[in-house]
Amino acid sequence: MAMLLGAAQLLVRRRDFSGTVRFVFQPAEEHGRGAAAMLADGLLQRFPMDEIYGMHNMPGLPAGQIATRAGGIMASEDNFVIRISGRGGHAARPHLVIDPLVVGAEIVLALQTIVARAVDPQHPAVVSCTEFVTDGIRNAIPGTVVIKGDTRSYVPEVQALLEARMRELCDGICRAHGATCTVAYTHEFAPTVNWPACTAAAVRAAQAVVGAERVDGNTPAMMASEDFGCFLQHIPGAFVFIGNGQGDEPGAVPLHNATYDFNDRILPLGARWFAELVRQRLPA
Predict the structure, then answer these.
(1) Structural domain tally of the chain?
(2) Does one domain contain both 125 and 206?
(3) Domain boundary among 161, 189, 217
(4) Model pTM greater than 0.85?
(5) Potential cystine with 198: which of 33, 50, 121, 238 (Cβ 3.0-4.6 Å)?
(6) 244, 63 in Cβ contact below 8 A?
């Protein structure tokens, strides 16, 4: 937001473009709800746009380096919640229970076979279990287990395959143990797919600001997700990363880490990139 506000200040001062620039401050990005809510609220009808561009800082890249790519740059994200119901009881009498912990452990391991054995290796995909919650205590086998996590992919066919195989594995493993389960599977983020012509424009603007040697126009795609992808399903545009720092540099701590710190030194570069992009796309 600070970089975008900085770009607005630069554009107001210079007035070296001809056209209309919309500044889109997207809420609720982290949960994948902001872009869709803005579109549903009539963003494009109220504020028509021909192209749209976004930027995100990226620890692990040298501070100020700009990286992007044409086509898919960030993956879709789907969330799942698996609820396993067994029959709890005393830990000393396991023969009288249906242990959802054992069932859940088998399911977590089995889910790893989806990508390894069901997805075509040419298509990137990730299945991650991130929470395993029970209602048990130290001397009692629980009655229920909840497994939460997410999947990442780039194409609808793989999204559908991940969901179908997950449901089949969960149902089959639970049946084998006499347990039951439900699987809630929701589509949260669309993949972020850059438009080629807009990507080229983003690269040219970056080269003008930081120099060609500090621009990567074919950076590897990531399996992380970004709500901006929803915009790109409706408007041509591109998304780029700006390096936040690497190694021992300030800003090198990964995103979603408790000690992450935004590198304030990249603020002017991000602002200048947005402003330069406007100047090139809307020449005076």
Answers:
(1) 2
(2) no
(3) 189
(4) yes
(5) 238
(6) yes
In sequence order, the 6+-apart residues with CB closer than 8 A to the CB of 40 are: none
Residue with tokens 């700006």: 242
What whole-number distance in Å separates Cα of residue 55 and Cα of residue 35? 14
Residue type, 71: G
pLDDT computed for residue 250 by the predictor: 85
The maximal CA–CA distance of the chain, rounded, in angstroms, is 80
The residue that leads in pLDDT, 31 or 251, is 251
> Residue 184's closest CA among 196, 172, 167, 198?
167
Are 69 and 195 in a shared domain? yes
3-state secondary structure at position 121: coil
Q: How is residue 98 annotated by DSSP? A: B
Q: How far apart are CA 101 and CA 201, in angstroms?
A: 53
User: Do 84 and 183 lie in a common domain?
Assistant: yes
Residues 61 and 197 in one domain: yes
Using a CB cutoff of 8 Å and minimum separation of 24, what contacts does 256-264 make? 260/59, 262/57, 263/57, 263/63
CA dihedral 110, 113, 118, 120 (to 10 degrees): 160
**CATH number of the domain within which 140 lies:** 3.30.70.360
Last residue of one domain, picked from the residues 189, 222, 256:
189
Structure tokens at 170: 């969960």
Residue-wise pLDDT tens digits, 104-144: 999 999 999 999 999 999 999 999 999 999 998 999 999 99
CB-based burial, 56-77: b 16+ in 10 Å, e otherwise = bbbbebbbbbbbbbbebbbbbb
Q: Tell me the residue range of the domain where 42 lies.
A: 2-74+191-281
Cβ distance 231 to 237 under 8 Å? yes
Q: What angle do CA 69, 73, 78 make, to 5 degrees?
A: 175
Q: Could you count the other beta carbons within 10 Å of the beta carbon of residue 131?
A: 9
